[in-house]
Amino acid sequence: MPAYDYRCSTCHAVFEVTRRFGETADVACPECGAGAKRLYTPVGVVFKGSGFHNTDYRPRPAADAAPASDAGSCTKAADSGACASCPASD
To answer: pLDDT (tens digit, 9 = 90+) per residue, 9-33?
Structure first.
């Protein structure tokens, strides 16, 4: 069962209550007995890198789907040390 944080509306005490997911009963402050409201805190999970549906399994545009033109198969001329299929570089 998950634990939830609550804050008292009268004395502002913060406390934790373990409850079931579907439980909707009101929670009373253990110090003064007044009603309390649930605190919503950020989750400690950070999604970084590849492996997520939005970025990895989306269909690619036609321009990106085509393989690059033989950039990986560059052959250098033996005598000049320059690439025979690439533009000259200074």
So the answer is: 999 999 999 988 888 889 999 999 9
